[in-house]
Amino acid sequence: MKQQPDHHPDQLVIRGLHVAVEGQEILKGVDLTIGRGEIHALMGPNGSGKSTLGYAIMGHPSYEVTAGTIELVAADGTRRDLLAMEPDERARAGVFLAFQRPMAIPGVRLADFLRHAVTNVRNPERKEGQELMPMKEFRSELKAKMSELSIDSDFARRYVNEGFSGGEMKRAEILQLAMLQPRFAILDETDSGLDADAVRLASQSIARIGGAGGDAASGADAMGILIITHHEQLLEHNVPHRTHVMLGGRIVESGGAELAAELHKRGYERIRAAYPDAAAAERAMEESTRNTEAAGV
Amino acid sequence: MTTAAPKPPAPTPALTGFDRPLLDGMLAGSSLPDWAVGLRRDAVDRLAALSLPGRGEENWMRTDLRMFQPRAWVAAAERTAPAAGAIPAGLLESATQGAAAVAGTGAFGGRIAALDGHVVRDELDPALAAQGIVFGAPERILAEHGERFRSRWFSAVDSSADWFAAMHAAFHRAGAVLWVPAGVRLTAPLHVLSAITPGGLDTSHVLVVLEEGAEATVLTETVGGGDAGSDGGLHCGATEIVVGRNASLRMVNLQNWSRGVWHFARQRATVDAGGRLQWTLAALGSRLSQVQQDVALVGRGADAQVNGVMFTEGRQQLVYNTLQHHMAPGCHSDLLYKGALQDRSRLVWRGMIKVDKAAQKTDGYQRNDTLMLSREARSDSIPGLEIEADDVRCTHGATSGRVDEEQIFYARARGLTADEAARLVVAGFFQQVFDRITIPPVREALSAAIGGRIRRVS
User: Fold this and answer.
1) How far is the CA of A277 from the CAs of A23, A284, B88, B158, in angstroms?
2) Does the pLDDT at position A219 exceed 80?
3) Any idea which of A185-199, A283-297, B397-411 has the lowest mean pLDDT?
4) Do A91 and B407 touch (CB under 8 A)?
5) B282 inside domain
6) Which site among A114, A116, A164 would you substitute to test the B interface, given the most B Cβ atoms closer than 10 Å to its Cβ?
7) Which domain holds residue B262?
């Protein structure tokens, strides 16, 4: 894939996306367009396919795209096909996924990991073996970001996610988001496992990093953010321009911030009743998962 | 019996070619003291009665010697000293990554280098010599200071243990002798390089003696040889370490032979009361390695830390037998071997903690972790305890794992390529043992050397 460092995408465009895992279709035709500077909330019951969408955008090898497109579209209309890229090429093209369950990498310090990541993402043309970002420059930037996010300075010396509490893992993801400054970020339940204060801090941090919330202090170009969440709190400082509801592998309804508030308050009963086909697909997926588990696969 | 596969004919002693006439030819014109010549002649007589170790022997049952032909290396033993111009410059300088790294941070206190068993460099900083430190090639040191080393020479290693031990005792050449007088603290590291050309033979012998309260750091490296068959090479060496009371030694042995070299090494250290030994073995090269690494804690409160860093690939086969022998009370030993295996390589570690009846209050630990980078690689970890004292704490552990695809994806999602991700995960695996190596340039050189070898994880 030829790199196009001067390609400045304005939109992440997903059309008719079907994704299967181990032969089972999870996403059944997803359409979604996220512009720079926009916040989208993606809600839906467990198992509806929200995380699958995140993995598919990032290019996880176990998530097979069977139909549809994911593209980065620039203001001048030029397009880059994300599906033709390896996961690391997608990261270098400006796409970021905050993992719901980040992986531990024992023996690798968070700072070293991030230095590799930042170097590659900022120099998409970098060849392997070429110099990393100068240590001094990297350290001072990291220190500044950590202090902005109220993260302890010894955090960077710890091994990536090893022995981290749930909250620490999520903060490490937010720190990486802050350092990498992607164009589009998918935050997969970055609030799960956090107490109320921690969620508020995460919400503020994301708003600051994304440049779309109350204080765009970072001065960076605003990100397009897809927030996958079950809770309203994370959205407190990140009021969504659009809220989408996923059910049975499809986005069945979209609305504004008020939709997120409604779902948070009332749950998904109205949605299930309004979209019986998607609700049936949800039940079928649950059934299939149960059978697979029962068969010990 | 009728269905048994035909056994390869065990080489009868007379056929190996490492015999008395060969030895006499080698000793012609030597200035070794008579006692040292006597030890060699005894050894060649023992050798005549020995055949190669068979798979029935516990320490050798996982070592495949079928393709090993001792006779093929006799001609290499007869090679004369290389002309100065014939020494491949790169072999003695750039190939020694660890040496280059150390040289970048501070000069060595002394350097010895041998090529195909012939000493080509033998230097010691005169300021260190003035402190009474003795360091040099064994042939010269034994000729000059013979009596001082008579009781030490071949006192730690068993020269009758097997064919390789006896062969080494008879035919050893080059290596190093280091003697640090009581109370002398040597801060500059000393470097011992054994290099061979393709098809070459190295039988280096290293003896390190630290008297009471002395301190030293020694790096040994082996490099060179060829990549296959008769162009490979043979190392049949031994290392003896004597750490005196309250003395402290940091020893690093980097085995970085080419991939066609047979490597047989017998190494033993004794640590006296209050003495400390940090001993790191790193192995990257060779076709087949069989290493016996023993540490004996002979005085109260002696301490030994043993580190192993192994990276294997291709069809390499590395076998390590380790012994932590607690002979005195209140001693501490801690062994950590870590190996990463690529391709169809094989790594065997068989470790023993032996605690004598007298060694009460022993604290012994051994651990072996392996990381499999391919499905065809194979590792064996066989820890063992043999305890006769009743008030001891001895534990062991072993893990074997593979690089997790989810780890690789996580790193790639942050912009690292698949190769960078794999290298980082492997580097992380070794970090725990690197953290223990208190010589940063060695750590960095090893890390770089391993990083350069990791290919895409399959």
Assistant:
1) 21, 11, 77, 80
2) no
3) A283-297
4) no
5) yes
6) A116
7) 13-299
B246, B218 contact by CB (below 8 A): no
Distance of alpha carbon A124 from alpha carbon A59, whole angstroms: 17
CA angle B410, B412, B418 (to 5 degrees): 120
Interface test with A, best of B414, B426, B435 (most A CBs within 10 A): B414
In this predicted model, what pLDDT tens digit does every residue of A22-59 receive, in sequence order? Answer: 999 999 999 999 999 999 999 999 889 999 999 999 99
Q: Do A107 and B420 touch (CB under 8 A)?
A: no
Q: What is the DSSP letter of B84?
A: G
d(CA A156, CA A176): 11
Domains, chain A, in order of start with CATH, read: 9-294 (3.40.50.300)
Residue type at position B422: A
The confidence score (pLDDT) of residue A111 equals 95
Q: Give how far the C-alpha of residue A66 lies from the chain's centroid of Cα atoms, to the nearest Å.
A: 21
Identity of the residue in A105, A114, A128 whose CB atom sits nearest the CB atom of B407: A105
Supply the pLDDT for residue B456.
Answer: 62
Instruction: Give how many domains chain B has, as a whole number.
Output: 1
Nearest to A225 by CA among A48, A30, A54: A54
Put simply, whether the predicted model's pTM sits higher than 0.80 gets the answer yes
- B85 band by pLDDT with thresholds 50, 70 and 90: low
Angle (CA) B398-B400-B406 rounded to 5° is 140
Q: How many CA atoms lie within 13 A of B149 on its CB side?
A: 31
Contact yes or no for A121 and B405 at CB 8 A: no
Both structure tokens of B117: 């068993």
In a domain, B168, yes or no: yes
Tokens representing B369? 């972790």
Alpha carbons A90 and A97: distance in angstroms, whole number: 10
Sign of CA dihedral A115, A117, A118, A120: positive
DSSP string, A213-251: SS--TT-SPPPEEEEE-S-SGGGSSS--SEEEEEETTEE
Give a yes or no: residue B377 inside a domain: no
CB atoms within 10 A of CB A204: 18
Q: What is the ipTM of this complex?
A: 0.94
Establish if B440 belongs to a structural domain.
Answer: no
pLDDT digits (tens, 9 = 90+) for B238-283: 999 999 999 999 999 999 999 999 999 999 999 999 999 999 999 9
